Amino acid sequence: MPPRSLVRWWDALHEVESLVSVHWQLSSPLIPVSQGRHTATLTNVQAPVEGDNWLTLVQAALPISEAYEWAVRPDCGAVVLFSGTVRDHADGRDDVQSLTYEAYAGQTEQSFADVVDEVRRRWPTTGRVAIWHRSGELSVGESSVVVVVSAPHRAEAFAAGRFAIDAVKASAPIWKKESWAGGTDWGTGATDITTPSGVPSAASAGSATAKDESVEGGAPR
């Protein structure tokens, strides 16, 4: 199971923070899992009625094309979409058959909101941002996380999208259990949870250059 120190650290970090309202819709009561964590059971992913952030923890399959279509805006010439899928191996573990994700519902969505706040602080021209993550058991090839960012130019979109997925991995209270030919155990390579502000931007991050502005078309490429 996830280290108790991480669970206690996360609870302490958010003890005095006010929660930000984000778009998510429960189809049934919260289901308790180990160490006091909870996972929300969402039957589908529904776009927010208003606003430019779409943040969801869901057990259903992720409709990736809908995230892309929602992120398109008239003032944004670039849309970058990242989808993380379950692969068939991990460090020292061949023949991975499935992953099971567990998360703190409510606090996970809050961490997504914190990521978006940092994205918009670093790249103020960002248009729309979607961050979706699965919970529960996933088979090889299924999408476990989707991050979509739109922006006026490709440089900002790529940089913001790369940062967003890196920050989600570093800051969201989500743990995965791997099932492979040799058994079942928590994923390897876990690191301490940090805040989005502590996650560095990729080396290529930055605003669009004058060249970008002169050649950027109306559609992403």
Can you give me a brief rundown of this structure?
The chain is built from five helices and ten strands; from the N terminus they run αβββαββαβββαββα. It starts with a helix and ends in a 6-residue tail after the last helix.
What does this structure look like?
With 221 residues, the chain is α+β, with helices and mostly antiparallel strands. It has a single domain (4-199), classed as Alpha-Beta Complex (Aldehyde Oxidoreductase, domain 3), CATH 3.90.1170. It has 5 helices and 10 strands. The strands form 3 sheets. Strands 3-6-8-4 form a 4-stranded mixed β-sheet, with helices on both faces. A hairpin with a 2-residue loop joins strand 9 (174-180) and strand 10. Helix 3 packs antiparallel against helix 4. The longest helix is centred in the C-terminal third of the chain and has 18 residues, at 154-171. The protein is globular. It starts with a helix and ends in a 6-residue tail after the last helix. The model is unreliable at 4-42 and 204-221 (pLDDT under 50).
Q: Helical amount among residues, as a percent range?
A: 25-40%
Total domains: 1
Oligomer: single chain
Specify the overall morphology: globular
What is the number of helices?
5
Order of helices and strands: HEEEHEEHEEEHEEH
Mean pLDDT: 78
- What is the end-to-end distance? 42 Å
Detail the poorly predicted runs: 4-42, 204-221
Strand content: 25-35%
Largest sheet: 4 strands, mixed
Question: What CATH first level would be assigned?
Answer: Alpha Beta
Strand order of the largest sheet: 3-6-8-4
Structural class: alpha+beta
CATH superfamily: Molybdopterin biosynthesis MoaE subunit
CATH architecture descriptor: Alpha-Beta Complex
Write down the Rg.
18 Å
Q: Got a strand count?
A: 10
CATH topology: Aldehyde Oxidoreductase, domain 3
